[in-house]
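quick one: 2-acetamido-2-deoxy-beta-D-glucopyranose bound model?
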Amino acid sequence: MSKSTRMTINNCVSFAVVLTSLWTLIRGDTEVSCVYKESCILPCSFQTNETVVIHWIQAAGDTPVHSYYYNQDQLDHQDRHFRGRTSLFKDQISRGNASLHLTGVKSQDQGRYTCFTSTISRNKNSTVDLKVEGSPRYIAAIVCAVSGSFFTLVVFICYYRKCKE
Ligand SMILES: *[C@@H]1O[C@H](CO)[C@@H](O)[C@H](O)[C@H]1NC(C)=O
Ligand SMILES: *[C@@H]1O[C@H](CO)[C@@H](O)[C@H](O)[C@H]1NC(C)=O
Ligand SMILES: *[C@@H]1O[C@H](CO)[C@@H](O)[C@H](O)[C@H]1NC(C)=O
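yep, here:
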């Protein structure tokens, strides 16, 4: 690969990374990287008042993840996918902390989450972008990309050599 080609590719990659980060920033999302099979905290805070209603929703499909009102967890409508894997920091709720603790992170957990908080005085929605690292799917994608580039490189070199002869 020539130096200028490599420069162009590098610039393209940097540009894509910058664009993605910018998009996340514009949407006002918080990005969280979670490790496959480990536990993870999705941050959310609100201005406290006497009572609070908290709803955590997975944005794609409006999936109910965790709800809390009347001073207790309300999990009747929780999606089966999240059963037994979510909790709030109960002792922190009165301090305006509605962060979600998610355990046994799966690759399907990846995506956007909305945290709705509602008190007598105000409502707030915030969004968290969850990225799952180290999942078999993620590793497969990397292996695929690396072997794909390697294959392209081999073809490219073969082609280049033949042309020169
Ligand atoms: C909420 O509390 C948990 C546990 O103490 C902490 O890890 C997290 O950073 C807190 N989040 C916010 C938004 O205050
Ligand atoms: C709770 O909300 C009420 C109604 O808006 C307000 O008068 C009160 O000051 C608030 N209390 C706190 C602790 O923020
Ligand atoms: C939060 O989202 C819900 C549902 O999309 C909407 O009804 C509500 O008005 C929103 N609240 C704020 C404060 O943005």
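The first helix runs from residue 3 to 27.
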